[in-house]
Amino acid sequence: MTQAAVPLPATPELRIPIREILPWAVFIGVLALVVLYFVSTEQGALALFSNGYVHEFVHDGRHLLAFPCH
Ligand SMILES: [Zn+2]
Fold first, then answer.
1. Fewest beta carbons less than 10 Å away: which of 12, 27, 33, 53?
2. For 6-17, how does the pLDDT look when each residue is reduced to its tens digit (9 = 90+)?
3. Number of domains composing the chain
4. C-alpha 31 to ligand 1 mean position (Å)
5. Is residue 69 part of a domain?
6. Ligand 1 centre distance from Cα of residue 58 (Å)
């Protein structure tokens, strides 16, 4: 007893549009680096803003991520 092979339905070709994603990936990467700078380094002599508001705003995140603070 033989059974005929049932052909599988054709699956659509999956393509990842790298050229469309790349500018957004670079933008998100730069944005992440800016946020990482403010969380990790914005204090003391390296501070861009002298009033300390940015440092206090991200202070809990700094301790959460184990960056040295005080
Ligand atoms: Zn602290």
1. 12
2. 888 888 888 989
3. 1
4. 23
5. no
6. 9
